[in-house]
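Predict structure. Chain length: 488.
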Amino acid sequence: MKKQIRLIATIVICIAVLGGAWFLLSDSDNAKQAEESSSASAREEQMNLMTHKKGDMLRIHVANEKGGYTAECTADTVNVENLDGIPMNDSAVSEILSAPVSIRANTQIADGEQRMAEFGLAGNTGEVTMTFQDGSEEVLSVGDTVPGSEVASHYVFYQNGVYVVYDTYLKAFLYGEQDLVTGQLTPENDSFTIQSASLSGSGFEEPIALELTDTQELSGYLLNSYQLTAPFSYPTDLASAEEYLSSFFGLTANAVVKIQPTDEEIVEYGLKEPWAKIEVAYKDAGGTAQSFALQTAAPDAQGNAFCIVDGIPVVYQCNLADVAWISETAENLVSREVLVPALRSLRSVSIQKESGESITLEIREADAAGSDTDSGSDAYQVFYGEQELDLDSFKNYYYMLVSQSADEVLLENLPSADGMSVAAVVTYEYADESRAADIVTYYQESDRELYAEINQGERGCRLPYTQLQQMLTCLDQLIAGEKIEARY
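Prediction complete.
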């Protein structure tokens, strides 16, 4: 009997324990559901502090720890006092114009107006005053950041209430003048044609200067040819020049340091006699002439330097380590091609072989009556004697001819060609008869190497013999009527 009583008692205790556990779990779930419901409700119950239409705001005055700003506004423009003629940050302008359209509070603090100091809203607080087209005015104060908030937020005082507002709605009220200035120093390269560029300054022994000499299309490629004009005169390598010139564009500052600097401050920042200065002239996609100039002070140990763009009264800080032109030299830019005359500037190109045989390819304007050639830039024909050559094959051959690459470029102390046998002579005659012909004489310096001399000692280079052999082989194929394929 006692055993039965003990068994019944044990069962009763187990049921009680299980029931309590179930109650606790059920209560915990209910609490969690209530918390989630409350959180969802809070999200759904964000309050509109003010709602205006875009374009309603006439003026905004912001006072904050960054100094704030004052701006006159229209539907799509912002004119900030002290920033006349200074390019603005497009994102900041958009934030200002959208500021009063919809500001939503996440939470209202109970009795917050009685405890303003707790939220950084007493004394010298950040204050925003917005004046609207109808003459009305809205004023709010921005206090401390909200500690422990998952979303960056500030306390805001508005119309006798203290609210928690996400920074998403407050960006325009947290800016200082420097935040409104764009950090883009030079334009993005958007199909520009660079006409000239120079790099000079106290950080360089001699300036480096380039000028556009020609733009031509070869085998479907549009090629810009540039000439070094300082520290010496010499054609540039096509790829190297394009990469070098492109590095001047799209430069962005790390920070805006000073707006409207005085002459004394320009000296203080090391910009009176700049360490480096770039000057670039270009034509934009519409063909309009444009230019810019950028000056930098000597870089510090971290590669940062103060800089200024001509015509803009702002001192920036930029990171010169990201700019390829800082470490460039003129020697790295010289062309490795033997000679690259513009095809459409020629009236003929003659190739004299080692045997003495000379082949002349004549370039004529297209015969409008009977030519099958394309119009526009291809409105020309090429003849070997009276034999018209396939135009695509000729262009591919010509690209091969002018893209011969030297292993070594010689600007001075040229070797004597005495005792060297002539392997070939290429003569370029120009349509402009006042322009002297360019002549490249190839000498066989060794079994595997050629010495090419341009215009009888103007400059020289060394290149593999195989390049000349390939060029002469394709020449024979071209005049035999064979198809010359592009090789690149």
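Summary: The two ends are 104 Å apart (CA to CA).
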